[in-house]
Amino acid sequence: xxxxxxxxxxxxxxxxxxxxxxxxxxxxxxxxxxxxxxxxxxxxxxxxxxxxxxxxxxxxxxxxxxxxxxxxxxxxxxxxxxxxxxxxxxxxxxxxxxxxxxxxxxxxxxxxxxxxxxxxxxxxxxxxxxx
Length: 131
Hints:
Elements: H1 2-12, H2 19-24, H3 44-54, E1 55-63, E2 70-81, H4 85-95, E3 99-103, E4 106-111, H5 114-126
Antiparallel strand pairs: 1-2, 2-4, 3-4
């Protein structure tokens, strides 16, 4: 059973294990993980559950040329490993807003425009569209 768990861990890290795990489980073979080839999200409920574990809303405060010198923005962000680029790009089409940014070995789907958050993102999670 432990070998199976280590094999799953290895597959999540592109086959890379910490040195102590390599020594303890020298014959472990990473579990096969198929690539996400169909970028269309078929079930909005899946997306609602998926994002509940992976997304975040946060407040971004940046310097600005406004009277008070700062700008405050609400940001919706979902981050996934670089191999899920097609999935991340499909979110732009699904929500009708947002952008994708590459950051290291990951892609961030970000929605910064307040109107997009209030008109597209929040309503989706309040009432996901029917399948």
